[in-house]
Design brief:
241 residues; alpha/beta; eight-stranded parallel barrel; two-stranded antiparallel ribbon; 8 helices; 10 strands
Length: 241
Amino acid sequence: MRTTIEICASSMGVAKAAYKIGADRIEICHDLSVGGVTPSYETLEVCSQLDIPTRVLIRPRSGDFVYSEKEVEQMLSDIQECKELDLEGIVIGALLNDGTLDIPALKKFRHASSGLKLIFHRGIDHCEDEGKFERIIDLGFDGILSSGSIENVRLGMDALQRSQDKYGDDLEIVAGGGVSATNVNDLLQIGIPSIHFSCQKLGTETSLSFNEYANESSGNKHIFDMEKWQLISNLIRSLEA
């Protein structure tokens, strides 16, 4: 089985680069320094014109995953924009103060996202609900983005394997958070079907000419990290052979 390589892109430039070099899928967001938030409509428009499956992180702010009524309404509006642009899916989630799933909000997201792939983001790793996987399956989610732990995939490898073994037939397990050349073999060995990692760095120039995104707060430019892409993607494909 061919592993899906998903690039997490926080700019139009990095998304275009990921498409150009042959990523299987993109997750588009903004501001990876805080774990990512919802990207701008302009960014979504550009991504909708790329011939590559694109999922959108819907997260109105950094911090926890407990959302007010107003924030939920904004998230529903963002979902509608993704549908209008015919993007593949959304990556979203919501918890209550006690760490359990916010079922009412999640039901609204499912209803609003009809026709889109629905993925629960890494908030799942913060969820204290013992039956969380069964519940999100019942809610109609198609997959989860998880590191198996709050920290990273290296520490969460055993949990990822349990999730894949028990729920892999019902949920796409997308492994993300600290993916590197030192642990992709372990992820493949436990049968993870999709691997998610960011592929950008601060810099000024690249052989790919469309890294035009500038970080507004620092003035630094994020460019596509071709060396990281080649290292991890080549390793994945060689291990599959």
